[in-house]
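2024-03-11 09:14:02 DEBUG pipeline.ingest accepted 1 chain
2024-03-11 09:14:02 DEBUG pipeline.ingest length=182
2024-03-11 09:14:03 DEBUG pipeline.predict start
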Amino acid sequence: MAEASRAAEARRALEDRFLDSWSGVSALWGVSPTFGRIHGLLLLSPRPLDAGSIRGRLGVSHGSCSTGLNTLVSWGVIRRVRPPGRRSCFYAPERDPWTWFRACVRERRRREIGPLLEALREARSFAEASAAEERELRTPGHRDLAGARDRVREFTGVLEEFAGIVDAFLAAGGPPRRGRSR
């Protein structure tokens, strides 16, 4: 009996450490630390968990847990399952860590890179028109404006290239090949 208790304590300590780390990784990727803790708990669980078990283990509110579970389902990193003979919904993770990573990248692309790229393209268009107009009128400072326009063009181009890299990664769909030398 004492050995089972020791094993349970060791598992709990492992979970605590992993959940703290996984919530930190999640925060770095723009994901709510609570969502990271929910996902981390499901990753470590040997079987699907219901929302009540998740709330109880993590000490999160009903609303926070529900929002986290629904978001993680919509990202495709966990799924709803109904064990035979059970009425309540349980949750199980996609075990492949690359599924989580791709979902985070996809969401950051949608929430952050897309709107920023749109704003920079708009700024570039404004800079192009303004610089052309001021050059034509030969107003004082038109060369400074042209320099600013060039910097906006350059930065927009860098972000467009970065977005292209992100899009290529997402289109590839799978993890990088393992076993390659670094």
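2024-03-11 09:14:41 DEBUG pipeline.report The domain at 2-94 is CATH 1.10.10.10 (Arc Repressor Mutant, subunit A).
2024-03-11 09:14:41 DEBUG pipeline.predict end
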